[in-house]
Design a protein that fits this description.
Helix content of chain A: over 70%
CATH superfamily of the domain at 91-296 in chain B: MetI-like
Shape of chain A: flat
CATH superfamily of the largest domain in chain A: MetI-like
Strand order of the largest sheet of chain A: 1-2
Number of helices of chain A: 15
Largest interface: A-B, 129 and 121 residues
Radius of gyration of chain B: 24 Å
Oligomer: heterodimer
CATH architecture of the domain at 91-296 in chain B: Orthogonal Bundle
Structural class of chain A: mainly alpha
CATH class of the domain at 91-296 in chain B: Mainly Alpha
CATH topology of the largest domain in chain A: MetI-like fold
Number of strands of chain A: 2
Number of strands of chain B: 0
Distance between the termini of chain B: 26 Å
Strand content of chain A: under 5%
Largest sheet of chain B: none
Strand content of chain B: under 5%
CATH class of the largest domain in chain A: Mainly Alpha
Radius of gyration of chain A: 26 Å
Number of domains of chain A: 2
Structural class of chain B: mainly alpha
């Protein structure tokens, strides 16, 4: 144990300000504290603001606690709130909606992002302009994008899509209501529009980090476009694809703005929006907390996979 | 550091790197056609993605009655009245924009003050088990904000009695962006060549000199990119702002939501509000363009 700590210390001191071997300082010695000190303020803040509230949520999820004026006083409720979460159909639906929307949006925007990145990796007139046009949707404030898609693009009658369909001669185009008839699809379209640029940026960076010599060799050896793509580009881009999917999932699963701005939860409530509604409108703090804990468990599953992908990138750096 | 220096560094950072193209062998007859096909498809897709933004801009410049017609009044006269109305009305957008600016800028400064030392301890002068610390930071960002929002709401309203206060938002945005900033800054600091630092030490340079003369200049484009990305995330935030503020501390994104009023023609003004609050993000995003990928991928993609 002691030796491994000592090794750790020496290795960690590696190249840097203290390349001289660390003298025999104990683990809690001055030296290691001066190393750790710059890290502490950030760690303390994060524990206070992110970990502590979650512990409180965990405690509250086992309590019967409603803030409605006529509600009984708060008390211990055991697993009642969790039972309610898993037996109430609207909450179960929220879980499915979360999964369905996240998967759809991530998969479609990653696929579209890859196609566009492959196109932008070629030289053609105005490539820089197209790249700028592609990035712009990601730089619209999410709630602004959501309210405009809900009220200006997909709105029944005076929305852009109905208007264009009408201009093209589609009968009764002014009566097509995307938001009320297909609320989930509407949100998915809006978020695919916002997140494809993100995927595209990461994948394009991946494509451009391919070794040009390898590509040249493949061309000289007579590899066709498909062969080059299948055996050289894809294996190289795979890591970037994984990374963009993981990061995209982390952000998209937390989506709240689009639902608030586009449908107000109509047949499209995901878990974050359900927590918001139960807590903000219904004021049932116990159930809202239990839902919050369920989101965290889901996120941990996603995160475990995500951390593995990121850690493979980090260990590569450590090995260098 | 003067602001002029910062500008040059940002400019340097945003200079596009040379793109590596697929080497083209001897010109083939099909190549010109395939280039044309690629170019045309890319332009078409790019156009589809930009159309909603152009339409938002167009709608924001149309008189309210002309902004919501079927079919759209493409050629209605243009006017800036909707923007003027946003500032003139009794319910002006300015206080919320000021709140958003204060929250985003102050939280970004706090993030830098906390993230730079942390990143230093994770890259240049590494603590033992540095990668565990990195993953702890990342895992806090993966925790959905809704999981903690209720205790945070109760704490600010019932314990410290600061409802509707931007100070609370500043603290929350700082912790929200901190993990991202630590990861980003670490990847930028890791680019500082340790050999130069060692050489400077041998020459007797003090830690202060090393920080200001060697680490600083290499890290500053990274600091700029990190700040811009943290600014964007803080500016965009909606959930905490909606739950924790009402009137005094209302931010831009929350204000735009209040522009949806179905009893009269509202779309033109809503579009103007949406364009207005997006301008700072577009400016910051394009300023950080070249480092945007490295930042968004938490430094994993160079």
């Amino acid at each position: 144990m002691n030796t491994s700590v000592a090794e750790e210390e020496t290795r960690a001191s590696g190249p840097g300000f203290d390349s001289a071997p660390v003298p025999h300082v104990s683990k809690w010695g001055r030296e290691s504290w001066s190393r750790r000190a710059p890290l502490l303020p950030a760690l303390v803040l994060l524990i206070l603001v992110t970990q502590l509230p979650f512990v409180a949520t965990l405690v509250m999820s086992f309590m019967s606690w409603s803030a409605q004026p006529d509600a009984p006083p708060k008390s211990f409720a055991g697993v009642d709130n969790y039972k309610q979460v898993f037996t109430t159909s609207s909450y179960r639906k929220a879980v499915f909606t979360s999964v369905e929307m996240t998967v759809t949006i991530v998969v479609v925007s990653a696929a579209l992002g890859l196609i566009i990145a492959l196109l932008l990796n070629h030289k053609f007139p105005g490539r820089g302009v197209v790249r700028t046009m592609m990035i712009a949707p990601f730089l619209i404030v999410p709630i602004a994008a959501a309210v405009f898609w809900g009220n200006g693009v997909l709105q029944t009658g005076f929305g852009l899509v109905d208007g264009l369909l009408g201009n093209l001669g589609v009968d009764n185009a002014q009566n097509i209501s995307f938001i009320t008839d297909h609320p989930k699809l509407s949100i998915e379209l809006e978020l695919i529009w916002q997140w494809t640029p993100f995927m595209m940026l990461i994948l394009l960076a991946g494509l451009q980090s391919r070794d040009p010599e390898v590509m040249e060799a493949a061309t000289i050896d007579g590899a066709g476009g498909w062969q080059t793509f299948r055996y050289i580009t894809m294996p190289h881009v795979r890591r970037y694809l994984e990374l963009s999917i993981v990061l995209g999932t982390i952000f998209i699963v937390q989506n709240f703005d689009s639902i608030l701005g586009m449908t107000g939860g109509l047949n499209s409530t995901n878990i974050p929006y359900a927590v918001y509604e139960v807590f903000y409108s219904a004021k049932d703090y116990g159930v809202a907390s239990a839902l919050g804990v369920v989101v965290v468990i889901g996120s941990i599953i996603v995160a475990t996979f995500g951390l593995r992908v990121v850690s493979s990138l980090l260990s590569e750096e450590e090995a260098r | 550091m003067s602001s002029a220096e910062l500008t040059t560094n940002v400019a340097e950072a945003s200079t596009p790197r040379r793109m590596q193209d697929i080497p083209s062998p001897s010109p083939q007859s099909g190549r010109r056609w395939s280039t044309a096909a690629i170019g045309i498809s890319a332009w078409v897709i790019g156009f589809v993605f930009i159309v909603p933004i152009l339409y938002m801009l167009l709608t924001s410049l149309h008189p309210p009655a002309k902004a919501q017609t079927y079919p759209p009044s493409w050629t209605a006269p243009l006017t800036l009245d909707n923007y003027r109305a946003l500032f003139d009305s009794s319910n002006s957008i300015s206080p919320s924009l000021i709140n958003s600016a204060i929250c985003s800028i102050v939280s970004t400064l706090l993030v830098l003050a906390l993230a730079i030392p942390a990143a230093y301890a994770l890259s240049i002068r590494r603590v033992p088990k540095w990668s565990d610390a990195m993953f702890f930071f990342l895992s806090t960002r993966m925790l959905p904000p809704v999981a903690g929002i209720l205790p945070i709401y109760l704490f600010t309203n019932k314990v410290i009695h600061l409802p509707d206060n931007i100070f609370v938002l500043i603290v929350l945005y700082t912790s929200m962006n901190l993990p991202i900033a630590v990861w980003m800054m670490r990847s930028f600091l890791a680019e500082v060549p340790t050999a130069i630092i060692e050489a400077a030490q041998i020459d007797g340079a003090s830690t202060f000199t090393i920080l200001t003369r060697i680490v600083g200049p290499i890290a500053i484009p990274g600091v700029a990119a990190t700040s811009l990305i943290c600014f964007i995330f803080a500016w965009n935030e909606q959930l905490f702002a909606k739950v924790l503020t009402s009137v005094v501390a209302q931010t831009g994104p929350v204000y735009v939501g209040t522009l949806i009023q179905t009893e009269h023609a509202y779309l033109a003004q809503l579009s103007a509000g949406a364009v207005l609050i997006s301008v700072p993000v577009l400016v910051a995003g394009f300023a950080a363009q070249d480092k945007l990928v490295q930042g968004l991928s938490l430094g994993a993609v160079k």
